[in-house]
Give the backbone structure.
Amino acid sequence: MGWTGTILRVNLSNGSVTKEPLDLQLARAYIGGRGLATKILYDEIDPRLDPLGPANKLILATGPLTGTNAPTGGRYMAVTKSPLTAAIACSNSGGYVGAEMRYAGYDLVIVEGKAPHPVYLWINNDRVEIRDAAQVWGQSTHETEDALRAATSAEAKILSIGPAGETLSLTACIINDKHRAAGRSGVGAVMGSKNLKAVVFRGTRSVKVAHPQEFMRACLTAVAKLKADHGSGEGLPTYGTPGIVNVINAHGFMPTNNFQFGQFAGADKISGETIHEEILIRNKGCFACTIACARVTEVKAGTFKGSGEGPEYETVWGLGAMTGVDDLAAVTKANYLCNELGMDTIEAGVAIATAMELFERGYIPEREIGRSLRFGDADALVEMTEKLGRGEGFGALLALGGARLAERYGHPELFMGVKQQAFAAYDGRGAQGIGLGYATSNRGACHLRGYTIAAEVFGVPRKMDPFSTEGKAALAKASQDATAFVDSTGTCVFTTFALGPADLHAMLELATNAGYTEEEVVKIGERIWNLERLFNLKAGFSAKDDTLPRRILEEPIPAGPAKGKVARLGEMLPEYYRLRGWDPQGVPTPEKLRDLGLYPTP
Amino acid sequence: MAKVLSIIPERCTACRACELACSVKHTGEFNPTRSRIKVSIFLEEAVYIPTACTQCSEAWCAKICPTTAILRNDDYMAYYVDDNKCVGCKMCVLACPFGAIELYADHGKAEKCDLCLSIDGDPECVKFCTPKALLFTDEDAGPKAKQAATALRMKEVYKEVAG
């Protein structure tokens, strides 16, 4: 119960399609989604392999709560080896695709090999076909969805890549339901490398839980808590994630102009409040989501006319504050382009911002870009976003992501990120916990691998001073482990504003009847984190990669409330390793691995 | 006082929690295709419309049923299917102008929204509709509220026009 019990395995090289029973003991130990898929990837691939080669695998994974009434129970994960970072990648998304995969009867879909020509998968309950995708290759994600829905079923739910994924851009994401993104780590390029344009799902079967009535009562309790909470019940539905633009800016750690400043003068012009006033049509929920933070928007007139979903907080930052652009219409248009062409708005924004600083410092000549590329130039932002998505001209270099771009022009220190993945919208100099989180995140810089900002800014579960390093190692570890658990259930991390492990544990246990205890589920999060770490160690990463760019470690924030601050990583990292039960080189000790059930054979 | 299921599409967030709640309450399993309420999602137009049986006063499904399997509960003014009488002939499916009654192959009987009265008369979809796009209200409260809201809008327009 809880799990469908079936894995679908498709090998694109030889066209084989097999259904395998899910190992329920393994499922119990890793729950699903991020955890289970990581375990399978760890067992099945060599972590040193070429992520864009046919030997890499792409695992689409749901959790036991995906497709149920558990609030936000609609998530799926795309787990693979990242071509952007060369580390483990795990990108998650909402929308309707994850639930439909479960209704088709599968917990996980494992894609192997490489098709000889562009194809898409048509998964219609039991029937699975590898179909020719020639007619949609080169098309946007929106065009692809429309065409494939017409070719399959009006009720089909679809995930696909756009031109960015096809051209193997390292910023490429997977887009589902037209506007939702499994955004980070270049997972779209892995699909592109397999000649896999899209996966189309139609499912009419049931997802069963062990104790339906008690489960529904637990769901209602969770729903009530989410509605009563200020963040998930009020802030997010009203202003979406951009509701925090003004808050973070006021704290002085909103990274601006490629982290040259900690505050953005144009912040309010791209804030949740302004979005609400100027372009919001309505808010929208992903599958089974009671929060409904998505912004359905329209820019009604002007050069940047268009409609779609977004922008999110990270997007108004990446394409806005980070590039110095305060023109909401331009930022929104760039967001639409990212969705349609299939790029991560963070990675794309940071690549453009990196190019802007390289240009302004004279490291990239204008003739190579074909135009000037200064911070704050709205036209340049939109033009570069489109070029990046299509891999045209200078866009082909932007498509490599900020890290490789900065390296190419001889100034790797100007890339703001960790393990070649861009930072998110919080400066680690201001919020010390998130700095540590970025440095130690298994998928490279990321705010969703332990959102310490919840404590450092919003006081959840308790308020901690963002400028202090005290207790931050423990905070980072706890939120990393908790997030790994949440990501494995099939629900959204936004529930953690109002729900604790006890709430999720209740729903998980009533769904699966697997005998989970509350202590155990948090420990599973820690197990997953350590397994990801083991993957990365095997892939060649070490303690020296748990670091931050020189600017963040040495150049103080020049002005504002966080003036004079740098990231004090050295004060936190040894304690973090110790709390994790790792040696000073960041390697999990045999005792810790034994304790987590990862030794001797993880 | 009879109660009705009021649907306010402009509040719907397209989360489909109602579909799940309905299916699990009636079948014990999560399966939107077994839901008696359906959210139609028009992504491009940003329009989301939940639809369910309207419990017509003159219910063609009931009228046409050759075995009188579709009955009305007068307390609720809601129609329900008597499984013992339903023979799965699909006449009701043909007769309903809204597609609000369906036949499910696995048990061969018609299924429709009965406001959960076959269970407890406490519609599960409403409980899970956090944006309150679904309401279970007194028979005349829905239209009255809509009338009042329309009047309010007209007042604003009138003020604008009259200066």
Notes: The first strand of chain A starts at residue 6 and ends at 11.
